[in-house]
Amino acid sequence: MNRNGLYAVIAILLVAVVGFGIYTYQQQSRPGIEVRVDDGGLSINGNN
């Protein structure tokens, strides 16, 4: 594999890692609610 091909593979992997990081961050910071029913009753919590 020549040097340009190696650089292309590294660039593609870097873009994939950055894209996955952005996707994960957006999923974690997404507003939502959690509803639980247990022995203590009904509990509703927002994740923000």
Automatic annotation (TrEMBL):
This is Membrane protein. It comes from Devosia epidermidihirudinis. Keywords: Membrane, Transmembrane, Transmembrane helix. The chain crosses the membrane at residues 6-25.
